[in-house]
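Archive entry. Fields below.
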Amino acid sequence: MDLLHLRTVLGHFATGVTVITTQDKNANPSGLTANAFTSLSLNPPLALICVDKKAQCYSCFDESKIFAINFLNEDQETISRRFATKGADKFAHIEWHRSQNGFALIDGAIGYIECKIVQSHDGGDHTIYIGEIVSATAAEGRPLLFFKGKYHRLPTNND
Ligand SMILES: Cc1cc2nc3c(=O)[nH]c(=O)nc-3n(C[C@H](O)[C@H](O)[C@H](O)COP(=O)(O)O)c2cc1C
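PREDICTED_STRUCTURE:
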């Protein structure tokens, strides 16, 4: 399999953009931009994410056993780019807050899903984390989209 070709084909699947936040053993926040998010089950409420084993924040998932999924709004491309950049001081120049449960959440996101990790599975060069959803919150706004390696927005006549 030609990996470049595979990447190009996979890029034809349009997605939203999330930042997944977690934390290290000292409760310092960390996270990464991700579109490998799926709502897995409603009853029980479960969500699934896939995290690259080479991500700098990778060990934080095992250390904290928690993650939050932040659905980015259409004006948050800069945040997406920062959280997709290795070595960036990701939380330094953005507005964020702690939820009542202590999860790091990014201000302005249009949805938040807070999860406790209940299962992890090997997925090649990624690990699949399944989280029990402990809180879910929606907010007003329009989504940031990703298609063919570029950021997009919904047309304005489409709510
Ligand atoms: C739109 C987009 C979607 C991404 N989706 C994922 C993903 O689902 N899982 C993943 O591990 N990395 C994903 N990445 C790559 C990570 O954001 C990037 O490698 C990040 O720097 C890894 O975090 P680190 O800085 O802790 O190493 C995505 C990047 C972009 C731009």
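CURATOR_NOTE: Residues 16 and 145 are 4 Å apart (CA to CA).
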